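Async update (no meeting this week)

Hi team, since we skipped the sync, here's where things stand on the single-chain job. The sequence we agreed to prioritize is pasted below, unchanged from the tracker. I ran it this morning and attached the output directly underneath so nobody has to dig for it. Comments welcome in thread, and please keep replies under the output.
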Amino acid sequence: MRIKKHLYLVSLFSLSLLFAGCSSEAEIRATTGVAGIGPGGSGDFGTDLPGGDTGDGSVNNGAACTDLLCLQVTLFFRDTGIATPLTNCRSSGFDTLCSVSVPERDLFLNDLQFVSQTGDSQTCEYLQFEYYRYRRSDSAVYTPPGSQVEVDCSIGDAAQESKSCWGGAWTESEIFPNFTRRFINTAVNNLLTIDVLSSLSFSPGNPIGNRFAANDLSSRSVSAANYHGGSMVDYEVSCLDEFNETVSNIILEIVEDDGPIDQINGWD
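Output:
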């Protein structure tokens, strides 16, 4: 798994440009921030799961977040409505890897939820979530999986291209194609909740399979069928200070566990 590091600054001057209608990283965050507010909005980490099931205690359910960043990953079974916590990752540093393995059938049929929180809202004034995504092609003549219609993916701007030029959970979020991150002010809400619905929910027999949610591709720099080399961006949760500088971050890897027989399309 390739680990990347995002360190970026947004000056107070850039923030002032936001109100003048100028485009900046701060504008992207401010625009997508309200949409990122999740249910509950307060309380201990891991207690705001819908369905009433907070798990068996193996992932610190109900425990308060005492680190700069806490991230809980939960699997929601569509047939039973049961919420099963998969892991609880914590970080007060940079580039902490949170890797979660999910059986391929469970990943394809069911929904994921990512809930992040900070234990220090004075230091971590903002929480940011970046969606996993990749480009399927940059060709002017591309035939997407499951389609017989050619599309132009050479424009280089998701807002002007066919949605099928892109892949990953980002493509089914409400902020696609204009923004790639969600953002909240921790003084308003200390829970940033992201839902990723099952691949199957968008199309029965979806040919994309688990590539929709799993970001466990190992050879990322190499182009392959329906993947443009070097284009993959991971799920990432970040703690930002008052100047929008990254203070801590967690990189999330969703791994498809094929089991003894690989039956659903994935990466490796």
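Quick observations from my side:
Residues 1-60 have pLDDT under 50 and may be disordered.
The two ends are 12 Å apart (CA to CA).
Reply here if anything looks off.
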